[in-house]
Design brief:
The protein is of the alpha+beta class and about 220 residues long. It has a domain at about 50-195: NADH Oxidase, CATH 3.40.109. Helix content is about 45%, strand content about 15%. The protein contains 9 helices and 4 strands; from the N terminus they run αααααβαβαβααβ. The chain has helices at about 1-15, 25, 30-35, 40-45, 60-70, 90-105, 135-150, 160-170, 175-180, and strands at about 80-85, 120-130, 155-160, 185-195. Helix 3 (about 30-35) crosses helix 4 and helix 5 (about 60-70) crosses helix 7. The chain is globular. It starts with a helix and ends in a 20-residue tail after the last strand. It holds the Pfam family Nitroreductase.
Length: about 220
Amino acid sequence: MKNLKSALMVTALLYLCGCTPSSKQQENATVADVTEKNAVIETIMSRRSIRKYQPQAVNRDTMQIILDCGINAPNGQNRQSWEIRVVDNPEFINGISEVYKKENPKVAEDPNFKNMFRNAPTVVFIANDTSYGLSQIDCGLLGENMILSAWSMGIGSCCLGGPTRFMTSSPAAAEYLKKLDIPEGYQLLYCIAFGYPDETPAAKPRNAAKIKFID
């Protein structure tokens, strides 16, 4: 019993002497300190947009995990105002890319051009509900969840707007747009390229001056 009392007294003295981190010390922890200890923050801070991919498609079981993370994103009134189409079929990807090349012959001059999705082997197309004014925000949150979950598993990605603009505006692409089977009332908004990275790009600077705390 005496030993127990002594141990408790020592613990109390250490606490009073400031041998445990104070709330002020915790507040002063650097971003690097937090990043090292928090897997979510580490994933967010290390993520990069990937524009060069290895040729193999992402395994569908792995993609399903990514998609499940996507549909668990926050969304207004739980309306889930999105439609998602996943394409890893080379015939589709290469076919629409050939249509794109015919209308944009200069891209064919690039020896590294393989498809219009940054050469990615897997593409997720996202359509939004045009009847709901905040649907585009919901679709953005959906995409971010997918991008971060993919990165945490070693899979790169890149958000793309150009391919979907082409698919919705070019009559020559109508066949491929139809194959996506987007329901009435929805419009193709953007797509995300997914694949195993074949590059390690450096981080681009962010402008912290755009952040302000309002008292």
